[in-house]
Amino acid sequence: QPQIILLKEGTDTSQGKAQLVSNINACTAVADVVRTTLGPRGMDKLIHDDKGNVTISNDGATIMKLLDIVHPAAKILVDIAKSQDSEVGDGTTTVVLLAGEFLKEAKPFVEDGVHPQNLIRSYRTACYLAIEKIKELAVSIEGKSLEEKKSLLAKCAATTLSSKLIGGEKVFFASMVVDAVIAIGNDDRLNMIGIKKVPGGNMRDSFLVNGVAFKKTFSYAGFEQQPKKFLNPKILLLNIELELKSEKENAEIRLSDPSQYQSIVDAEWNIIYDKLDKCVKSGAKVVLSRLAIGDLATQYFADRDIFCAGRVAEEDLQRVAAATGGTVQTSVNNIIDEVLGTCEVFEEKQVGNERFNIFSGCPSGRTATIVLRGGADQFIEEAERSLHDAIMIVRRALKNSTVVAGGGAIDMEISRYLRQHARTIAGKSQLFINSYAKALEVIPRQLCDNAGFDATDVLNKLRQKHALPSGEGASYGVDINTGGIADSFTNFVWEPSVVKSNAINAATEAACLILSVDETVKNPKSESAQGEAAASAMAGKGRGRGRGMRRR
Ligand code: ADP
Ligand code: MG
């Protein structure tokens, strides 16, 4: 028999059961990394790279991103964490843990020779049932008054924040986040909520500006003579340079008579004075520009009691425009009143070591800015990430307006439901659905482990409560304060239902995807540049599938 050569020399393939088991092991290892960060008593990870950047984080997505995983199958877990982060913003550790646990539960079956497709089919069914159950258990917050809604949303935000570094001040930050989200209303642009970080001071010195705040920009002489506070000023937003330009670099001018030179200099001065004059005539008291405002202009405005700031960051300028109702102008000709913005109070204020320009009481009120204070840089960075999670959660809860009980309560309830359902199934599928149900218990178990409680004990109590035929125990979860169990619903440990349904969906998809791979081929070139492409193609595949299945 002649040997058939199919693949290039040096190609490495591994296939079959061994390959599948090794992929599962890789994913379990990844899940083990983030395992300890789950929940209010979870630990943080310190990650530093060769450039000396240090990040301390509790956020699953951030950790996964920084780990720089190279294993092609384990990369899928990084992708689901990322997509959970962008879809709902929270539950990133949960999604990785669940996927890892689903795979772990599948491993003995695979080793025993069960065909992966059987597992996949059962997992999909279980996922569908779980999501239906979440829909059934979700409690709507629709139709409540604004005050009631606010306090409900603050509870959701507090649950998210409780697992973070700033958890100690969760009530303070939760109400701040809710105010910020309600301020921007239906605006979909997340950057309408600005977060400014000012190192130093105490966490509690952080404050919310109902409008825009940004750090004082670079300024020239004369700036100190400008007034720093206005009530109801008109605000002019520009995208032009207000600087004396010497044109000699840009143009070639031929002069036949030295006296003509003066006229050119004069013309330049006239141009800039003309521009400045038009700004003043518009009636604006505050002039902001994305481009530079030079020393001449600064002095000119100072003499006329006008405040100016140049080189304002694009994002900040857009937010000022949205908040004050102004429009950014690219010319100073014909400035009509409609393009000028206004706000109740404009002032420049000292915050820690920095000076801030603050626009508050804005008429259209579509922006809000949180000024974060706190000790070390890493601390503020993590605080910002945590607030981002909370902001996303409040927005999600506001949009979908249904919540479920957290602290592992919903996971236990789905688990119970699936076990019960499994009993009605004849055949092997019963076992697989039971395993899926068991995997869901990882959330309460890990919450206990991370807090130092006896997980077996707590889980048994939870199972017993959830099994009550009256269904009154359905919202019992881990009580993080006493080490026992408590009704998460009445304790206000709430999560938007979309966090859970999205996490379960994405984790199941990832597990099924990994179970469906039975062969990895590595061609000899993949060591070099091609490796990157192949890896990203694989990652891309994972992402593509995940997105297709997810619902909003
Ligand atoms: P993730 O990145 O998945 O959001 P977290 O570290 O934020 O992970 O932990 C979230 C888990 O912690 C959720 O299951 C949530 O229900 C639980 N949790 C949050 N606050 C509490 C609390 N006060 N008591 C019990 N469980 C809580
Ligand atoms: Mg969280």
TrEMBL record:
Region (Disordered): 524-552
Keywords: ATP-binding, Chaperone, Cytoplasm, Nucleotide-binding
CDD domains recorded: TCP1_eta
InterPro entries: Chap_CCT_eta, Chaperone_TCP-1, Chaperonin_TCP-1_CS, Cpn60/GroEL/TCP-1, GroEL-like_apical_dom_sf, GROEL-like_equatorial_sf, TCP-1-like_intermed_sf, TCP-1_chaperonin
Basic residues bias (residue ranges): 542-552
Family annotation (PANTHER family): CHAPERONIN
Family as reported in the entry's similarity comment: Belongs to the TCP-1 chaperonin family.
Function summary: Molecular chaperone; assists the folding of proteins upon ATP hydrolysis. Known to play a role, in vitro, in the folding of actin and tubulin.
The protein's name in its UniProt record: T-complex protein 1 subunit eta
Originating organism: Gossypium trilobum
